[in-house]
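Severity: low
Component: inverse-folding endpoint
Summary: output formatting inconsistent between runs
Steps to reproduce: submit the following structure tokens with default settings.
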């Protein structure tokens, strides 16, 4: 089962209504991250020059940051 999370202002939301209730934001204002399988509790934003990616798998975070000492990882909670 595939699902999309909507990330806005340091939080991730499971649907458009939750995004609107939490942030008064619309879908076009949010970034999206696809989710396969179960709903994660966290989304990770990996940042370094040339990369700004949202992922839900901590193993993918390790792969993306390997060899990039300048990488920053923001942990974003998933809300209803």
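Observed output (run 2 of 3):
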């Amino acid at each position: 089962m595939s699902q999309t999370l909507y990330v806005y202002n340091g939080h991730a939301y499971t649907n458009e209504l939750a995004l609107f209730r939490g942030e008064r934001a619309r879908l076009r204002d949010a970034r999206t991250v696809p989710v396969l399988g179960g709903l994660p509790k966290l989304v990770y934003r990996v940042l370094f020059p040339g990369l700004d990616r949202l992922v839900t798998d901590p193993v993918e975070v390790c792969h993306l940051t390997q060899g990039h000492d300048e990488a920053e990882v923001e942990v974003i909670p998933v809300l209803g």
